[in-house]
Design brief:
Elements lengths: L6 H9 L6 E2 L5 E2 L7 H9 L8 H14 L4 H14 L5 H4 L4 H8 L8 H16 L6 H6 L20 H12 L7 H10 L22
Antiparallel strand pairs: 1-2
Helix pairs in contact: 3-4, 3-7, 3-10, 9-10
């Protein structure tokens, strides 16, 4: 037999438009992960899930998603200014020319994630990005894997972590010479850049990308 809910819990439940979102001090419903930390809240409100359709922006997102593997996104977000400074703004033409001295420089930079394999993957992926220009460019290539439908999660546990499209994108990018682009990482990328909309149904950001209806 379960305990009866407290008056405080009942009031909290009644204040929520659905069980998947949390009402912020500003009265706006967000998922729990974006409801406390001001940095994550601002990222969620202004950037996450909005379309990225330019080459440099796409390359940066792929790079940061790769660095995030095994870490929290909050860690990467806090280090993003340092990443941008260290990687010359994630300009593919510049990063593609990095050599061993640049790898050593990056490994000595305390402002970024100092992982040799991920650093070298960023260089490899810059070179692959340049090669993809002959096939229409990185941004169009990634967007070509947009599915016909998007998830409609009410609660966080209803959000998938991969999909047939993210698996296909992962395979295609690897064929083009990219590294650290596994299907789970690519699903996170697709969420972050608006290819799919996994904002919870009750969130004030649902449908805000203009790519998918609410």
């Amino acid at each position: 037999m379960t305990d009866a809910p407290t008056a405080e819990q009942s009031a909290l439940d009644a204040a929520q438009p659905d069980p998947g979102v949390v009402i912020g001090e500003d009265g706006l419903p967000r998922p729990a992960w974006a409801s406390v930390d001001p940095l994550l809240r601002d990222y969620y409100d202004t950037e996450w899930g909005m379309p990225v359709r330019d080459e440099q922006g796409m390359y940066e997102r792929i790079s940061l998603e790769a660095f995030q593997a095994g870490l929290s996104w909050a860690t990467i977000l806090r280090k993003r200014p340092a990443f941008r400074a260290a990687f010359d703004g994630f300009a593919p033409d510049v990063v593609a020319g990095y050599g061993d001295s640049d790898v050593e420089r990056l490994l000595a930079d305390p402002g970024i994630v100092r992982n040799s394999a991920k650093i070298r993957a960023a260089i490899t992926n810059a070179q692959a990005t340049i090669r993809l220009r002959d096939k229409g460019g990185l941004a169009d290539f990634v967007w070509s894997f947009q599915p016909d439908v998007t998830p409609e999660p009410v609660t966080f546990d209803q959000i998938p972590t991969r999909s047939p499209e993210s698996e296909a994108l992962s395979k295609a990018l690897r064929t083009e010479g990219f590294a650290f682009v596994g299907p789970t990482t690519m699903f996170a990328l697709m969420e972050a850049i608006g290819i799919i909309d996994t904002h919870l149904i009750g969130s004030h950001r649902r449908g805000s990308s203009g790519v998918w209806p609410k």
